[in-house]
Design goal:
Blueprint: H1 2-32, H2 41-54, E1 69-73, H3 79-88, H4 95-105, E2 114-118, H5 124-130, E3 138-143, H6 149-154, H7 165-171, E4 195-200, H8 205-219, H9 222-230, H10 235-248, H11 255-267, H12 275-282, H13 325-332, E5 341-344, E6 352-355, H14 358-363
Antiparallel strand pairs: 1-2, 3-4, 5-6
């Protein structure tokens, strides 16, 4: 009998040892994944036990349908602080469960500082893994004032968008329906309103053009429309003239004055005589490596193109670049002026000198 008693004690002792050293870690690993390699045996048992106590809190989201919200981890922020803020932000149900899982899995050692896009419909385990990659799901796409479509396209390879320049330019030949004031056969040139756009990283080219098109229409207020109408310009014509003003004006404060010169010339039946329209007609200049050849040569001013406003009266057939909101406003509401001419000042300041007559204009030439 004594032998059986001793054997029973050995079996019971083995079971007692197996439960914490064998069953608990094995069960936690089965339910929540393997523990981090850096944990000691005692830590593995401790955090495996804690995870089993938390149970469904680790795998059940706080809500079934949660909106995206931005969550930022600061450099050097503690795991305890991160876990607590996740709960305070309404993203997880229990901060201690988050902390214990991060330590158990070893993910606490690879949390990245940065901004993340999270949802309360993600489980604690999902969020813990999401915090390992600080690459945001959204990106910022910048369009600068005065860029033409090709320059926007050239920025795509470093933008984070999976859209090639060729794909972009081909799609821009088919403006989205929201830009219904663009005449048939015209491209989106002129309607890429310079701005910083927040776009999902996986956006298609159609989605990008739709977002940018909606951005333009949102800024096309009734006030702007009325201003264009008062100058006898359609929206499309207003954008054409604004694109010329954008390229002519070096100083923002001169845009309205420059617009007044062009409107005066249009009213008088004069040619616009704008260098940027000739640059637009020339296109890319391989010698200078730019779409905006400068300086122009005398022969350039005679180029046979409907965009050469030294030769052709009136507006060119389309925008030459993408004007900013200030340029659009300058055309809708230009300064009232008697000027028909302007030329760059001789001090390289970027400012211009304006004149009423051709004689005055010629007299303002640099020595």
């Amino acid at each position: 009998m004594r032998r059986y008693h001793i054997l029973s004690l050995i079996i019971l002792g083995g079971l007692a040892l197996y439960f914490p050293f064998g069953y608990i870690p094995a069960r936690a690993s089965l339910l929540y994944g393997p523990p981090g390699a850096s944990l000691s045996i005692s830590e593995r048992i401790e955090y495996s036990s804690k995870l089993l106590v938390h149970g469904n809190k680790l795998t059940t989201p706080l809500s079934e349908s949660g909106l995206h919200q931005r969550f930022r981890i600061e450099p050097g922020e503690s795991v305890l602080s991160i876990s607590n803020r996740l709960m305070v932000s309404g993203l997880i149900v229990n901060d201690q469960a988050m902390y214990d899982y991060l330590v158990y899995s070893g993910l606490d050692r690879s949390l990245q500082a940065g901004e993340f896009l999270l949802r309360s419909s993600m489980s604690i385990i999902d969020i813990a893994h999401e915090l390992q990659d600080s690459t945001p799901q959204d990106l910022t796409f910048v369009i600068l004032p005065g860029w033409r479509m090709e320059e926007i396209a050239a920025s795509l390879p470093t933008s984070g968008l999976e859209i090639t320049p060729e794909e972009f330019l081909e799609a821009a030949n088919r403006p989205p329906a929201v830009l219904d004031f663009i005449p048939g056969g015209a491209t989106m040139e002129g309607f890429f309103l310079p701005n910083t756009y927040i776009l999902p990283r996986d956006s298609s080219v159609e989605q990008v053009l739709e977002r940018i098109g909606r951005g333009f229409t949102q800024h096309l207020t009734e006030d702007l429309r009325q201003g264009f109408n008062a100058r006898n310009l359609t929206v499309y014509q207003g954008v054409i003239l604004a694109s010329i003003v954008e390229r002519e004006a070096v100083r923002l404060e001169e845009q309205s004055q420059i617009a007044s010169v062009f409107i005066n010339r249009l009213s008088a039946g004069m040619s616009l005589g704008s260098d940027p329209t000739v640059q637009g007609a020339i296109g890319y200049d391989p010698g200078q490596g730019t779409w905006w050849k400068n300086p122009l040569e005398a022969r350039d001013l005679k180029i046979d193109s409907p965009y050469n406003t030294y030769v052709v009266l009136g507006l060119p057939p389309g925008p030459i670049a993408n004007p900013g909101l200030d340029a659009l406003r300058s055309v809708a509401y230009p300064l009232e002026s008697p000027f028909y001419y302007f030329r760059a000042k001789c001090d390289n300041s970027g400012y211009h000198v304006f004149s009423v007559t051709l004689e005055e204009h010629l007299a303002n030439a640099c020595p």
